[in-house]
Amino acid sequence: MDVSLSASPSPVPHAIDSDLLVESLPYHADLARWYACIRDLPQPMLLSSGQSTHPAARFDILTADPGTVLRSRAGHTTLHRRDSAEVEVSTDPPFALLAQHCPLQPRQADPDLPFTGGVIAWFSYELLHESCRLPFRSAATLQLPDMFAGLFDWALVIDHRQRRASLVLRCQDPARRDFLRRHVQQAVETPLARVVPFSLLQGGFQPHFTREQYLDRFRRIIDYIEAGDCYQVNLAQCFSAACQGDSWDAFARLQQRANAPFAALLCDGDQHVLSFSPERFVKVEQGVVTTQPIKGTRPRSSNVDEDERNRLDLESSVKDRAENLMIVDLLRNDLGRVCDFGSVRVDKLFELQSFTNVHHLVSTISGRLQEPADLFKLLRACFPGGSITGAPKLRAMQIIDELETMPRSVYCGVIAWIDQGGNMDSNIAIRTLVRDGDHVHCWGGGGIVADSVGTEEYQETFDKIGLFLRNV
Q: Strand 59-63 to strand 45-48: parallel, antiparallel, or no bridges (unpaired)?
């Protein structure tokens, strides 16, 4: 049974290092209770791993009110500080700016506290388009920054495996520490307020492609493949809807169904990102790099026999294994640009993982960084993820830019935390909703190769967003 928050003793702080305090709080599994601690502060950020049997399902991380915020769009980055009204503007590369403003100080990692202050960010798929000489495509209905990065000096870390909750404080100002303590204590002792239910308006999600328009683009990709331009291209279509209500309500309901190991709810004013990703992008722990691309998908079925047939069909599919191996080779090359020579290896090939609405084939590649600061170089080298572009990566991105009608924004980008100690974890932002005011967007896509079937790929775009079509 969960311990009641209101009946808890006063937290006892203990020092982990010279500028970090950790205070124990009574554990509670109800994420709504913890979200209440941050939702009324500026820029509330929630990273949730769910409570499934997935190896990554352990921690929820919550924070808000960053000391510094960086927002990039179309090659320009603005920097806002909490204690200053001035706005700085830079044209430096986004990851170089992050490295400048979040210096890493290597320290022994605490396996029970993955995040003790640092960066929480989203990086849109188009973030590096300018450096890749791809045009920036604006859309009047979608104005999220290409990068939102907050530098946070505190966090709530909820450990579901050990049933622990911790308030992590890295802020130096005693007045701010006292404010955060009081704010959290008051929030956990206050009855939860009712939220306005989230809902879609005017008939729900509408696709941006007709079936014929999608198949036309599919055929153009096959032409490119047959001409030798590329081996694989990931083609996605966007779905949009008017909406109203509380994004937290949508996140809570969808995550209860998805139980995604790399879920997130990131809010910046009226721009919200709700991600239910099953896919890790890059993890760095004590210098060891891990990436786990997904390539190969079959829908789940409520019929046990049909679900088993779908699973076996995926496991035995020569086509899906070939696609997966193609991306594994691409990511080995990406990691090899930064990791120590000879350290990159494939740990697992074609591992089947089952989620709420789909089965996936997942492979695992690892390497080792020489210096903690190489983390930012690693992000630059691997971005965007090969599993959602195609191969060769740059040519696939050029074709995607030619054929897709809507910027992907955070979809197929990355959501990440970067601890000041040099550790990181991140997702590929698939199964992701992007809300901009009173409109919300999602995308479904898949990899197209020479022997793909257009009608099947079209249906897969709907299978990928089945969670949203059935539950929002």
A: antiparallel
Tell whether the model's pLDDT for residue 12 goes beyond 80. Answer: no
pLDDT, one tens digit per residue, over 172-212 is 899 999 999 999 999 988 999 999 999 999 889 999 999 99
Enclosing H/E stretch for 175: helix 174-189
Domain of 210 in residue numbering reads as 201-244+279-412+431-471
Q: What is the pLDDT of residues 261-303, one digit of tens each?
A: 999 999 999 999 999 999 999 999 999 999 998 888 888 888 9
User: How many C-beta neighbours within 10 Å does residue 73 have?
Assistant: 18
> Mean pLDDT, to the nearest integer, of 140-149?
86
Same domain, 89 and 20: yes
What is the arithmetic mean of pLDDT over 326-338? Answer: 92
Whichever domain contains 57, its CATH number is 3.60.120.10
Residue 231 clears pLDDT 70, i.e. is over it: yes
CA angle at residue 276 from 64 to 116, to 5 degrees?
A: 35
Q: Which two tokens stand for residue 310?
A: 């779908």
Asked if residue 177 and residue 74 are part of one domain, the reply reads yes
What beta strand segments (E) does 50-104 contain? 59-63, 68-73, 76-81, 87-90
Is residue 295 among the annotated active site residues?
Answer: yes
Could you say which of 23, 126, 283, 295 is catalytic?
A: 295
The one catalytic residue among 279, 323, 457, 460:
279
DSSP-derived 3-state class of residue 464: helix
Is the domain of 72 the same as that of 184?
Answer: yes
Q: Taking 50 as the threshold, does the pLDDT of residue 8 lie above it?
A: no
Residue-wise burial string across 212-241, b where 16 or more C-beta atoms lie within 10 A, e elsewhere: eebeebbeebbebbeeeebbbbbbbbbbbb
pTM, whole model, 2 decimals? 0.92
Whether residue 168 is found in the same domain as residue 226: no
Sign of CA dihedral 468, 470, 471, 472: positive
Among the candidates 189, 209, 224, a domain finishes at: 189
166 and 64, same domain (yes or no): yes
Note if 279 is an active site residue. Answer: yes
Query: What type of residue is 255?
Result: Q
User: Which pLDDT band holds residue 111 (cuts at 50, 70, 90)?
Assistant: confident
Asked if the structure places residue 184 within a domain, the reply is: yes
Query: Which residue is associated with the tokens 């700085």?
Result: 88
The total number of structural domains that make up the chain: 2
